[in-house]
TrEMBL record:
The keyword Glycosyltransferase appears for this protein: no
Subunit structure of this chain's protein: F-type ATPases have 2 components, F(1) - the catalytic core - and F(0) - the membrane proton channel. F(1) has five subunits: alpha(3), beta(3), gamma(1), delta(1), epsilon(1). F(0) has four main subunits: a(1), b(1), b'(1) and c(10-14). The alpha and beta chains form an alternating ring which encloses part of the gamma chain. F(1) is attached to F(0) by a central stalk formed by the gamma and epsilon chains, while a peripheral stalk is formed by the delta, b and b' chains.
Membrane topology, record value: Single-pass membrane protein
Family: Belongs to the ATPase B chain family.
Transmembrane segments: 26-49
Protein localization: Membrane; Plastid, Chloroplast thylakoid membrane
Organism of derivation: Chrysosplenium flagelliferum
Protein name as it appears in the record: ATP synthase subunit b, chloroplastic
Pfam family, one: ATP-synt_B
Record HAMAP family: ATP_synth_b_bprime
MF term (GO), any: proton-transporting ATP synthase activity, rotational mechanism
Amino acid sequence: MQNVTDSFVSLGHWPSAGSFGVNTDILATNLINLSVVLGVLIFFGKGVLSDLLDNRKQKILNTIRNSEELREGAIEQLEKARARLSKVEMEADQFRVNGYSEIEREKLNLINSTYKTLEQLENYKNETINFEQQRAINQVRQRVFQQALQRALGTLNSCLNNELHLRTISANIGMFGAMKKVTD
């Protein structure tokens, strides 16, 4: 502190007549320069600094206001989204319930139609088996009849002579003629 006061005191001892000297006391000269610069800055820069601070304050307030508006808009959108989500969830539950009901209904319809189809196939199978049995029985009857007829003809041919054979044919022709007259 002694140096500071000395520097102010020494200002009064400077000779005014053209001698120029360099003050080598760094602390004293820096303080003087600093106080002069600060004084000039405060005097001239007060208005500029206050304008800069006011502008910055306005920007911050506008940013806060905009942020509040955006936050309110986001809250509204969030509420709308939540309402839509609950509505969609309810619809999804409804679709799920309806879907399960529809699936059960389709399953029962499919089971019923499968049973009907199986029943029809069983009936067709039984009809086919009966038809084939009747056809086989008819074929066996025809063969038995043909074989019996061939044996009877063979027996008749071997037992009958020509004269007896002709009389039998004539008698049969007569019977057929009488039958024809009755049917006409």
